[in-house]
Amino acid sequence: MSQSVISDEKPLGESLGWHRLGTERPFRSHWHNLRQDQVRLPAGQKITFTYQEHPGFITVVPLTSDGQVVMIRSYRYTVDDWCWEMPAGGLGDNAGLPPEEVARQELLQEAGATCVEMCNIGWFYSMNGTADARCTIFLAVGVALNGDQQLEATEQIEVQLVPVEKALQMARDGRMTDGDSALALLRCEPHLIRRTRSTRVVPHDPRWPLRFAEEAARLAQVFGQELVAIHHMGSTAIPGIVAKPIIDILPEVKEIEKVDLLNDEMIALGYVPKGELGIPGRCYFSKDLEGERRYHVHVFQTGNPEIARHLDLVEYLKTHPGEASRYAELKQQLAKQYPHDVHRYTDGKSDLITELAERARLWKETLAS
Fold first, then answer.
1. CA pair distance 77, 154, nearest whole angstrom
2. Residue 80 backbone dihedrals phi, psi, to 5 degrees
3. Which pLDDT score is estimated for 305?
4. How far apart, in whole angstroms, are the C-alpha atoms of residue 272 and residue 283?
5. CA–CA separation, 104 and 327 (whole Å)
């Protein structure tokens, strides 16, 4: 174990009035220790605080070159159940080995896989009420299933390739019941999306309005009486402009708080609920078909200024072809520059979108006056 793990001292606790009177370790191993501290609490009570001292472990999120996550289905005797997991392993029986090397080792042993790159994403505490274990997350890139599993006698593991969006949804909806694996996968979500989502833009397709109308009818059945209006937004709503072939839909609802109650129905329609995702007051959903992103749904409560911002921009670009061409040229440039980095593509557009949105607002005010 590292020195930081086995240290008896609790300096922060001492500063908060938790006074350690003594420490015993009735059980020790290279996997973990059982530690018991005699502690006087800030109010004066004396207790025995028992927890597991742990050297930490790694969890690997493996991504193949064709955009699939290598998941394992493992039988766990402790809970007598099969669990969807990511490859993982402890540091205690790998003394002196760098965590990255442990990650590569566990990837090979549990999944029979190797990778081109192993990226350290960060860490979190696991079960911080009963153990001091830290999980370090690694994203394995360029993974290939090119070896044999090297399982221990207690390990029963099945390997399966799962598309990124499906794996993320399994972490969100509870099918992945191992909390450490689910959190590791979700912490890697921005990296997974950036590495797998194409920024391809294509000429305007006259079928896009029809696709909007068809999907809007399906969504209207889900939102029912809560729906105030439903709008086609984004570049696919603007004739003659290049766009990513993803239909952006904006439903206005009476009460945004009720939208979460419709998540199961949205999932049944093929959508992935993603919460606000950076925009306060929004409920955001995405939908893939045959492995390709096809729809974004941005739900706002009626009266939210974001509604006018999005719709005014569409109307402005429809009636100002020069501005629309300027926007289209930037998108084509960014798509070529960042063909597999959707975040940089999006960031590259933000300044111009802000400028155009302000022009659209002023233009709309002029029309209304």
1. 9
2. 50, 55
3. 96
4. 11
5. 44
